[in-house]
User: Fold this.
Amino acid sequence: MTASRSVNADTPVTIRPPGDKSITHRALIFASLANGASRIRGALTSLDARSMARVLRQLGVEISPLKAGSEVVVTGRGLRGLRRPPAPLHCGNSGTTARFLLGTLASYRFPAWITGDASLRRRPMRRVTAPLSQMGAAFEERNGDGLPLIVHGGPLRPLDYDMPVAAAQVKTALLLAGLTGRVAVRLREPGRSRDHTERMLRALGVPLDVTGEHLAFTPVDRIEAFDLDVPGDPSSAAFLIGAAILGIGASRCGVRVAGVGVNPTRLGAVRVLERMGARLALEPTGVTLGEPVADIVVHPSRLVACDVTPGEVPSLIDEVPILAVLASRADGESVFRGVAELRVKESNRLELLAANLRALGVTAEASADTLTVVGTDRPPRGRVETEGDHRIAMAFAVLGALPGARVRLSERASVAVSYPWFFDDLRKVRSGA
Assistant:
């Protein structure tokens, strides 16, 4: 990777993306299971993060309000201290919240009803409940492979499990079951998924052996409270990076995306962009609870087509929408292989990306697990159907900021799921203010 080199040019536009969604979720749930008061600064305050905080409060955890710029204080109840919820645990649109709860509550003796909004109820949950059932938990399904469902927890058995796909949410749910159930967990992934959970657990002193795709967790009696500065979310940063690469407005002079988490398992999109010819550089600024942080400096770039392999997908799955949009402005035909997981995100992102690109005059096709995009220099014009998917909305908003573009989004409110002030930051990129 060449991103460690500095780019010598003025960078008048500096933007700090919201706190990392993955790390915020993990920080909230680990702080809830810790002994003592944890302090979290820079936490994401989006709808998804608030869903996590809301259900943890229902389980008896004291969590101060999630407000932008405010420190969040979580008073943990220990590994076995969660209380039976008085009502169903509604996870909103947050699949991370739902899957983490399944693992966390698998060892608790009380039943817990878990549900979510219409979009979340369509997303698969058996990828989590199947291995948890092997550990001894029971689940009462009300909607097939989805929510709502009732967790009937109890004493758990150790787990030795070959994961069929590399999936950080599934991995984390199983580790949470081992943590609260105090049983050993051994996992093998077919590829390497994001490792925020492993880094956080090790930073908290939990014995965890990681060798390649093999992971072995040793149970502990307790974890202690912690302080954390949450880095900026690289998935959210990707949209600002995309706008800078396209040279939108003031970004022709460069953009500095400040304080971004640069965990290697999250930098797949950066590696692909480098292959496409993007001019960007990482300038390290520190480490927080095991997570490296850097500023990412980006300049307008002429892009060439890319070929994304299945092995790369776990490290960039959330960035495929913006990568596909950038591919529509690159020279040549780009192919994203092994992206079937996009079909079970907040929307069927695979079909939606192809359909929306075609609606804007771009040649694009989706097959079972592949997306093909042919670049063009024609101004994008047409209507984009987001189906309430925040990453679809943000990706096509970036494309719609190009000179001569006329892109109409079916809605904009969905961006609040992960990046509430996205449109304000996109305006800063365009104006330099």
Notes: DSSP finds 13 helices and 22 strands in the chain. The chain has a mean pLDDT of 94. The first strand starts at residue 13 and ends at 15.
